[in-house]
Write a structure and sequence with these properties.
Strand content: 5-15%
Structural class: mainly alpha
Helix content: 40-55%
Order of helices and strands: HEE
Shape: elongated
Oligomer: single chain
Largest sheet: 2 strands, antiparallel
Strand order of the largest sheet: 1-2
Number of helices: 1
Radius of gyration: 25 Å
Distance between the termini: 71 Å
Length: about 70
């Protein structure tokens, strides 16, 4: 005879656990993303030597300087 309980992990309980887990991951990533965004908003930079920037170059990052 099979165990057909609605509170087994493949029933309602499993669905609720998966839903709570996914919502908690979503909330954690949202809070982490907002923290990163607030940290980056306070870190200003300016571009020096705009005339020397080439369209396709790996040295373009050297023209960016932190203002802080």
């Amino acid at each position: 005879m099979e165990n057909r309980s609605i509170f087994a992990l493949d029933g309602i309980t499993g669905m609720l656990i998966a839903t709570v887990l996914l919502l908690s991951i979503l909330a954690g990533l949202t809070v982490w993303g907002l923290g990163v965004q607030q940290g980056s908003a306070n870190n200003f930079y300016q571009i020096e030597n705009e005339k020397d920037i080439k369209m396709f170059s790996t040295e373009n990052a050297a023209h960016r300087v932190n203002v802080q």
